[in-house]
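INTERNAL AUDIT FORM
Audit reference: QA-55
Scope: verify that the stored structure record matches its stored sequence.
Auditor: D.O.
Record contents follow.
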Amino acid sequence: MKAIILAAGHGSRLLPLTLTTPKCLVEVGGRAILDHQLDAVAAAGFESAVVVGGYRIDQIAKHLSARDGGLPTELVFNPFWSIANSIGSVWAVRAYLDAPFALMNGDTLFDAAILRAALADRGADTGSAVKLVIEPLVTPGLDDMLVEADGDAVVAVGKHLVGHQATDRSLGLIVSTGGSAYAEALRAVIGEEDGIHAYHHAVVRRAAETAGVRAVRIAGDVRWQEIDRPEDIALWQHDHDAQADGTLGS
Protein backbone atom coordinates (compact mmCIF):
# COMPACT_ATOMS: atom_id res chain seq x y z
CA MET A 1 0.00 0.00 0.00
CA LYS A 2 1.41 3.35 -1.09
CA ALA A 3 0.53 6.71 0.47
CA ILE A 4 0.02 9.60 -1.96
CA ILE A 5 0.24 13.07 -0.41
CA LEU A 6 -1.02 16.04 -2.45
CA ALA A 7 1.21 18.97 -1.50
CA ALA A 8 1.55 21.08 -4.64
CA GLY A 9 -0.56 24.15 -3.85
CA HIS A 10 0.47 27.56 -2.61
CA GLY A 11 -1.70 27.61 0.51
CA SER A 12 -2.73 31.25 0.13
CA ARG A 13 -5.06 31.10 3.14
CA LEU A 14 -2.01 30.42 5.32
CA LEU A 15 -0.29 33.63 4.26
CA PRO A 16 2.06 35.08 5.37
CA LEU A 17 3.39 31.68 6.51
CA THR A 18 3.42 30.42 2.92
CA LEU A 19 4.91 33.54 1.39
CA THR A 20 8.27 31.82 0.99
CA THR A 21 7.48 28.30 2.28
CA PRO A 22 5.33 25.55 0.76
CA LYS A 23 2.25 24.75 2.81
CA CYS A 24 3.37 21.22 3.66
CA LEU A 25 6.51 22.58 5.34
CA VAL A 26 4.67 25.02 7.61
CA GLU A 27 5.43 24.01 11.19
CA VAL A 28 2.71 22.78 13.52
CA GLY A 29 3.83 21.97 17.03
CA GLY A 30 7.46 22.58 16.02
CA ARG A 31 7.43 20.11 13.09
CA ALA A 32 6.53 20.41 9.41
CA ILE A 33 3.06 19.22 8.43
CA LEU A 34 4.75 16.82 6.00
CA ASP A 35 6.81 15.24 8.80
CA HIS A 36 3.66 14.67 10.86
CA GLN A 37 2.08 12.98 7.86
CA LEU A 38 5.02 10.79 6.88
CA ASP A 39 5.49 9.63 10.45
CA ALA A 40 1.79 8.72 10.71
CA VAL A 41 1.97 6.91 7.36
CA ALA A 42 4.99 4.92 8.52
CA ALA A 43 3.34 4.09 11.85
CA ALA A 44 0.26 2.85 9.99
CA GLY A 45 2.36 0.32 8.08
CA PHE A 46 2.53 1.80 4.59
CA GLU A 47 5.28 0.45 2.33
CA SER A 48 6.19 3.79 0.71
CA ALA A 49 4.95 7.30 -0.01
CA VAL A 50 4.71 9.63 -2.98
CA VAL A 51 4.61 13.38 -2.36
CA VAL A 52 3.22 15.56 -5.15
CA GLY A 53 4.88 18.97 -5.07
CA GLY A 54 4.56 22.16 -7.10
CA TYR A 55 4.96 25.49 -5.32
CA ARG A 56 8.60 25.82 -4.17
CA ILE A 57 9.18 22.12 -4.80
CA ASP A 58 12.93 22.64 -4.38
CA GLN A 59 12.33 23.20 -0.66
CA ILE A 60 10.28 20.01 -0.42
CA ALA A 61 13.04 18.06 -2.18
CA LYS A 62 15.66 19.42 0.20
CA HIS A 63 13.47 18.65 3.21
CA LEU A 64 12.86 15.06 2.13
CA SER A 65 16.54 14.45 1.41
CA ALA A 66 17.38 15.59 4.95
CA ARG A 67 15.06 13.04 6.58
CA ASP A 68 16.99 10.14 8.07
CA GLY A 69 15.95 6.88 6.42
CA GLY A 70 12.53 5.65 7.39
CA LEU A 71 9.74 5.39 4.86
CA PRO A 72 10.90 5.29 1.20
CA THR A 73 9.51 8.51 -0.30
CA GLU A 74 9.38 9.74 -3.90
CA LEU A 75 8.74 13.34 -4.96
CA VAL A 76 6.67 13.95 -8.11
CA PHE A 77 6.30 17.37 -9.76
CA ASN A 78 2.88 18.71 -10.72
CA PRO A 79 3.67 21.30 -13.43
CA PHE A 80 0.04 22.49 -13.44
CA TRP A 81 -0.08 23.45 -9.76
CA SER A 82 -0.60 27.18 -10.43
CA ILE A 83 -3.37 26.83 -13.05
CA ALA A 84 -5.27 23.67 -12.10
CA ASN A 85 -7.08 22.59 -8.97
CA SER A 86 -6.13 19.58 -6.85
CA ILE A 87 -7.19 17.16 -9.58
CA GLY A 88 -3.99 18.17 -11.41
CA SER A 89 -1.89 16.66 -8.64
CA VAL A 90 -3.83 13.40 -8.87
CA TRP A 91 -3.28 13.38 -12.63
CA ALA A 92 0.47 13.78 -12.04
CA VAL A 93 0.53 10.42 -10.21
CA ARG A 94 -1.96 8.58 -12.44
CA ALA A 95 0.65 5.87 -13.09
CA TYR A 96 0.25 4.72 -9.47
CA LEU A 97 -3.54 4.55 -9.37
CA ASP A 98 -4.15 0.97 -10.51
CA ALA A 99 -2.21 -0.44 -7.54
CA PRO A 100 -3.42 -0.11 -3.92
CA PHE A 101 -3.03 3.43 -2.57
CA ALA A 102 -4.24 5.87 0.06
CA LEU A 103 -4.50 9.46 -1.14
CA MET A 104 -4.55 12.40 1.26
CA ASN A 105 -4.31 16.17 1.22
CA GLY A 106 -0.95 17.65 2.15
CA ASP A 107 -2.44 19.95 4.78
CA THR A 108 -4.16 17.45 7.06
CA LEU A 109 -2.81 15.86 10.23
CA PHE A 110 -4.07 12.37 11.07
CA ASP A 111 -3.67 10.08 14.02
CA ALA A 112 -2.00 6.96 12.68
CA ALA A 113 -5.03 5.05 14.03
CA ILE A 114 -7.21 6.66 11.33
CA LEU A 115 -4.89 5.44 8.59
CA ARG A 116 -4.71 1.96 10.12
CA ALA A 117 -8.51 1.76 10.34
CA ALA A 118 -8.90 2.81 6.71
CA LEU A 119 -6.48 0.10 5.60
CA ALA A 120 -7.97 -2.55 7.87
CA ASP A 121 -11.55 -2.01 6.69
CA ARG A 122 -12.44 -5.07 4.61
CA GLY A 123 -15.88 -4.01 3.46
CA ALA A 124 -14.63 -3.13 0.01
CA ASP A 125 -13.71 -6.79 -0.54
CA THR A 126 -17.38 -7.49 -1.21
CA GLY A 127 -18.15 -4.35 -3.20
CA SER A 128 -16.36 -1.25 -4.46
CA ALA A 129 -12.58 -1.00 -4.40
CA VAL A 130 -12.66 2.72 -3.52
CA LYS A 131 -13.24 3.95 0.03
CA LEU A 132 -13.72 7.46 1.44
CA VAL A 133 -13.00 8.14 5.12
CA ILE A 134 -15.66 10.34 6.70
CA GLU A 135 -17.05 11.48 10.04
CA PRO A 136 -20.63 12.40 11.00
CA LEU A 137 -21.50 16.02 10.27
CA VAL A 138 -22.54 18.03 13.31
CA THR A 139 -21.96 21.67 12.38
CA PRO A 140 -20.74 22.31 8.81
CA GLY A 141 -17.51 24.31 8.59
CA LEU A 142 -16.64 26.96 6.03
CA ASP A 143 -14.47 24.71 3.86
CA ASP A 144 -15.93 21.28 4.57
CA MET A 145 -16.10 18.72 1.78
CA LEU A 146 -19.62 17.45 2.39
CA VAL A 147 -20.78 13.87 1.92
CA GLU A 148 -24.16 12.21 1.64
CA ALA A 149 -23.86 8.59 2.71
CA ASP A 150 -26.55 5.93 2.77
CA GLY A 151 -25.28 3.43 5.30
CA ASP A 152 -21.85 2.38 4.07
CA ALA A 153 -22.37 3.73 0.55
CA VAL A 154 -21.24 7.20 -0.57
CA VAL A 155 -24.04 8.85 -2.55
CA ALA A 156 -22.64 12.33 -3.26
CA VAL A 157 -19.57 14.44 -2.45
CA GLY A 158 -18.98 18.17 -2.88
CA LYS A 159 -18.51 21.55 -1.28
CA HIS A 160 -22.18 22.20 -2.07
CA LEU A 161 -24.57 19.26 -2.32
CA VAL A 162 -27.38 20.60 -4.46
CA GLY A 163 -30.30 18.19 -4.31
CA HIS A 164 -28.59 16.04 -1.67
CA GLN A 165 -28.62 15.94 2.13
CA ALA A 166 -25.19 16.17 3.77
CA THR A 167 -24.78 13.51 6.45
CA ASP A 168 -21.00 13.51 6.93
CA ARG A 169 -17.81 15.39 6.15
CA SER A 170 -14.81 14.01 4.28
CA LEU A 171 -11.38 13.78 5.89
CA GLY A 172 -9.82 13.98 2.42
CA LEU A 173 -8.54 10.42 2.81
CA ILE A 174 -9.30 8.12 -0.13
CA VAL A 175 -8.25 4.48 -0.25
CA SER A 176 -8.25 2.14 -3.23
CA THR A 177 -7.59 -1.55 -2.80
CA GLY A 178 -6.57 -1.78 -6.46
CA GLY A 179 -8.19 -1.96 -9.87
CA SER A 180 -9.16 0.67 -12.41
CA ALA A 181 -12.29 2.24 -10.85
CA TYR A 182 -10.59 5.31 -9.44
CA ALA A 183 -8.31 5.87 -12.46
CA GLU A 184 -11.25 5.60 -14.86
CA ALA A 185 -13.22 8.13 -12.82
CA LEU A 186 -10.21 10.46 -12.85
CA ARG A 187 -9.93 10.33 -16.65
CA ALA A 188 -13.65 11.03 -17.00
CA VAL A 189 -13.65 14.05 -14.69
CA ILE A 190 -10.47 15.72 -15.92
CA GLY A 191 -11.68 15.25 -19.50
CA GLU A 192 -14.83 17.27 -18.88
CA GLU A 193 -15.09 20.92 -19.84
CA ASP A 194 -13.15 22.88 -17.20
CA GLY A 195 -12.17 19.54 -15.63
CA ILE A 196 -8.72 20.78 -14.62
CA HIS A 197 -10.38 23.12 -12.15
CA ALA A 198 -12.21 20.33 -10.33
CA TYR A 199 -11.44 19.35 -6.76
CA HIS A 200 -10.09 15.83 -6.62
CA HIS A 201 -13.17 14.83 -4.60
CA ALA A 202 -15.03 15.09 -7.92
CA VAL A 203 -13.28 11.85 -8.82
CA VAL A 204 -14.81 10.20 -5.76
CA ARG A 205 -18.20 11.59 -6.75
CA ARG A 206 -17.86 10.07 -10.23
CA ALA A 207 -16.70 6.73 -8.82
CA ALA A 208 -19.67 6.74 -6.44
CA GLU A 209 -22.02 7.19 -9.40
CA THR A 210 -20.42 4.38 -11.40
CA ALA A 211 -18.39 1.70 -9.59
CA GLY A 212 -19.51 2.69 -6.09
CA VAL A 213 -17.56 4.06 -3.11
CA ARG A 214 -17.61 2.64 0.40
CA ALA A 215 -17.93 5.05 3.34
CA VAL A 216 -15.57 4.35 6.24
CA ARG A 217 -16.46 6.30 9.39
CA ILE A 218 -13.79 7.07 11.96
CA ALA A 219 -14.12 6.37 15.66
CA GLY A 220 -14.87 9.27 17.97
CA ASP A 221 -11.64 9.00 19.96
CA VAL A 222 -9.19 9.71 17.13
CA ARG A 223 -7.88 13.09 16.06
CA TRP A 224 -7.44 14.83 12.75
CA GLN A 225 -7.00 18.47 11.82
CA GLU A 226 -6.93 20.30 8.51
CA ILE A 227 -4.38 23.13 8.58
CA ASP A 228 -5.99 25.66 6.28
CA ARG A 229 -5.60 28.92 8.19
CA PRO A 230 -3.26 30.24 10.90
CA GLU A 231 -5.96 29.72 13.53
CA ASP A 232 -5.99 25.99 12.68
CA ILE A 233 -2.41 25.74 13.93
CA ALA A 234 -3.45 27.28 17.25
CA LEU A 235 -6.43 24.91 17.42
CA TRP A 236 -4.23 21.86 16.83
CA GLN A 237 -1.80 23.03 19.51
CA HIS A 238 -4.64 23.62 21.97
CA ASP A 239 -6.13 20.18 21.35
CA HIS A 240 -2.70 18.53 21.42
CA ASP A 241 -1.87 20.14 24.77
CA ALA A 242 -5.29 19.20 26.15
CA GLN A 243 -4.86 15.60 25.01
CA ALA A 244 -1.43 15.47 26.62
CA ASP A 245 -2.73 16.62 30.01
CA GLY A 246 -5.93 14.59 29.80
CA THR A 247 -8.39 17.48 29.61
CA LEU A 248 -9.51 17.04 26.00
CA GLY A 249 -13.29 16.65 25.94
CA SER A 250 -13.67 17.45 29.64
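Auditor finding: record pair retrieved intact. The first strand starts at residue 2 and ends at 7.
Action required: none
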